[in-house]
Amino acid sequence: MVNWSALETVFLDMDGTLLDLHFDSHFWLEHLPQRYADHYDLSPEEARDRVIPMIMAERGSLNWYCTDYWSERLSLDITGLKAEVGDRIGYRPHVKDFLQALRASRRQSVIVTNCHPDPLKLKLERTGLDQHVDGIVSSHQLGKAKEDPEFWQDLQHLAPYRADTTLMVDDSFPVLESARRAGISQCLAVLAPDSKQAANEQHPEIPGIHHFDEVIPALRQCPPLPSCK
After folding, report:
1. What does the alpha-carbon distance between residue 11 and residue 2 come to, in Å, rounded to a whole number?
2. β 108-113/208-209 pair status
3. Residues 156-168: pLDDT tens digits?
4. What is the spatial distance between Cα 194 and Cα 17, in angstroms, rounded to a whole number?
């Protein structure tokens, strides 16, 4: 499923891959429409009918992920509203064990996320996730979403990598397809990103896992890279 011996760098999505996507699903589909209804004196149904189509129209673009954009578009403090339900932020199963094994293997681990820096800060404060990886890059630093083919070339400026020795792990098939087109040699899909929802179907060409315990044994058995010290 993953040829660990051929890898030097592992790029990891955050939401739906390392963290439970339930937080984001709940926020965008339930909490935000409810707070929008409260703010504009609408029924919950009216609010959802207005907000959800606006959100879905931006799917795959950088605006889709941008809290500044939605704060201005909806005249609401999106980051503040996310903090209201911050107790729902949490790890997916086996993630900490996987990150420990990855660090022990001496392969470079970098979170590559479309998450805006403001909610990213909130999630790191809640989880300490940044303590378990070598780096974090938000697509907002590059002005392009991961779905954009040019994203991967620009990523070299913030997280240099060799495409032929790199793995990308993500719950988004469009992102993984974008990474493959950019030459990333190995891709792995997370099929169960949201703990409250059914798993996604397997991609015909991209291998997938439900949880990281499916790949931890092989990672631990793979000899670590030589120390750079």
Report:
1. 13
2. unpaired
3. 999 999 999 999 9
4. 9
